[in-house]
Amino acid sequence: MDAFLERLAEHSLPYELNRSSFTLRMKDSRSRILFRSLDDFEKLRGSNLAWFGVDELTYTKEEAWTRLEARLRDPKADQLCGFGVWTPKGFDWVYRRFRSEQVEGYGLVEAKPYENRYLLKETPDFYERLKASYDEAFFRQEVLGSYLNLQAGQVYYAFERSENVGDFELESDAPLLWSWDFNVNPMSSVIAQRRGETIYVLDEIYLRTSATPETCEEFGRRYGTHRAGVRVYGDASGRQRHTTSPYSDYQLIREYLAMHGELRGKVTAPRSNPPVRDRLNLTNAWLCSANETRRLFVDRRCKELIKDLEQVSYKPDSGVIDKDKDPNRTHLSDALGYLLWQEVGSSLRAGEQSRRLM
């Protein structure tokens, strides 16, 4: 709406705006413009529209589009029309309706990214910067506009054992990054260190039918002599109290660190988890970005994490991670994703997002 108002002011077009109802009326033509969210598209019933436009159509349900089409029935309109703009999101309903099985009366204009001379005039290195933030497949989809299926097959498709796995030594003067996925069986966490713009996963703690205190004791057995500090990250569910204990997982970790002050531990307990799609994109981008830079490496002793990175997949014909095929999978890779998101994610939020920013 703000962008629309800027265009009206630029062309000196008079209007009246009711901000409480997000409704605008043009003073010269008396036409009325409604600004609406499509999250609850059933509220669109009853409208008589001459035209409509939808931004980020691929993040909209197909039912919302069909509801809008049904409202194109304003008797005063000379021409009834609907349009949408979007970035490709795999072979979804938008691809089907507008490209592969084009509905009669539909048209499609595909713009090439480097045609945007206005953007490049202001930010000449825009595309190059995004290459560092995105993995190659996501870059091709979100920036170059290619139609790819990023919601099928291997989840961590940027992982290459020959490139991302090696033998890495613990640095005594660098803090440990300890990230959890709170799951009773197995209880899973990864231990890493950040060295500049590179993260090395050095170890994993993967204990069956274990609880948080036992995992803390195992961490202390392995790293109790480390004196450069410990930063704890993890799953937002760790804030919840258990029915068998008055304490949450994060409270138990804080209690352990308080009893072992020499570890100089700090706990970051997020209130919510990042969107799964954003977390996976970030992990793939650090495994290998579109400019072929690898910034995430895993020590070969992390056998279960490596299995995750190679074997975790999507359920057929969906964008949902398959957690049922093997109950041992997804936990350590989730812990790694939380680590990346909380340690570096906020610094890489450039380009397209899968969530509303305002």
Task: Characterize the structure shown.
With about 350 residues, this protein is of the alpha/beta class. It has 2 domains: about 1-100, Rossmann fold; about 160-345, Nucleotidyltransferase, domain 5 (2-Layer Sandwich). It contains 12 helices and 14 strands. It has helices at about 1-10, 60-70, 95-100, 115-120, 125-135, 135-140, 160-165, 210-225, 250-260, 275-285, 305-310, 330-345, and strands spanning about 15-20, 25, 30-35, 50-55, 80-85, 165, 175-180, 185-195, 200-205, 230-235, 240, 245-250, 265, 295-300. The strands form 4 sheets. The protein has a 7-stranded mixed beta sheet with strand order 6-14-9-8-7-10-13. Mean pLDDT is about 85; it is low at about 350-358.
Name the helicity range. Answer: 25-40%
CATH topology of the largest domain: Nucleotidyltransferase, domain 5
Total beta-strand segments: 14
What is the CATH class of the largest domain? Alpha Beta
Query: Spans of 5+ residues with little confidence (pLDDT < 50)?
Result: 348-358
Number of helical stretches of at least 4 residues: 12
Rg, rounded, reads 25 Å
Total domain units: 2
Compose a concise summary of this entry.
The protein has helices spanning 2-10, 62-70, 93-100, 117-122, 126-133, 136-142, 161-164, 212-223, 249-259, 276-287, 303-311, 331-343, and strands at 15-18, 23-26, 32-34, 51-54, 81-84, 165-166, 176-181, 187-195, 198-207, 230-234, 241-242, 245-248, 265-267, 296-299. Strand 7 and strand 8 (187-195) form a beta hairpin. By secondary structure, the protein is α/β, with parallel strands linked by helices.
